[in-house]
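Researcher: Re-running this chain for the archive, since the previous output was lost when a drive failed. Same request as before.
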Amino acid sequence: PENFVEQVKGAIEHINNLQSKASHEVEQVATGDVENVHKAMVAMEHASLAFNFSLQVRNKVLEAYQDVMKTQV
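Model: Regenerated structure tokens:
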């Protein structure tokens, strides 16, 4: 089993790969190398959803950490 840090690193790498793929697709559409605009739009939306999801997870983790730090022992 992977530890938490490795899982987070893997998730960040996956999101980075999705964003790189989306950028590549948009670049190809912009240069006219690809006629399939739909594929580029899907890649962009996929990357956007993954990024937004990761931000929500980060926010929840920070919120939980702050709640734990506020509790009195």
